[in-house]
Write a structure and sequence with these properties.
It is built from eleven helices and no strands. The protein is mostly helical and 244 residues long. The chain has one domain.
Amino acid sequence: MNKSADLWKVMLGVMLVMQAGIAMDYWPKFTSVRWAVHIHYWNATAWYTLLILQPWLVAKKNITAHRFWGMIGLLMAGGMVLLSVSQLHRDIFYADFVRDNPGANGPFEPWFFLSVLMNEVVLVTGYMIAVVMAVRTRKSPEDHAWWMASTAFLLLMPALGRGIQNAAIMIFGFSPEITFVVMPPLYLTQVIIISMLLGVAAWIGKLRHPATYLAVAANLAVFFTPHLAKLEPVQAALRAIFQN
């Protein structure tokens, strides 16, 4: 049974998870965050909305509208990549700040923010590949649909990770000695995302699909980048590439 047309229900659920994750980090700061953050938030929200709309249009057999919004989606995807890349320097800023002000940001050390930068590069790269493959497989509806749907799981980590990490800080506290709130919440985030991804892939019959492999591999990177980010040559390379 072809379940691709029912993906809109799943994508609605994933969007709600994303919004719940980012809510505490965005809405209380709504009037003080930079304009670029607003644009990034609403562009991501628009992308998830598109992932709901497109399979819904297929379910309604409105292929003309589906193709129209697909073209709009390409512009949105380009904006997503550009906005994501344009904000990578923030991680360098935070890394340098905690390096120069030890303990000023609780238990977080420079390597953490450099690890976040590396994660974002991996996930954005995976996102670009998934979008390109969705375009390439547009004549195969099931493959096209799953490549597109997989982007939801490639974009989920930053929002959900912040939500879970903020919750951990609220529960356990925020001081230099409470290191539990640094990586464990992000590891838990990846377990949740990968579990969601594999659950949807199994439901739609795409466990062995390249899009599934790509999304799982990109999310697994979070378990390895902290070790790389602690290496001085890696830190120097990241600063050379992404420093303003």
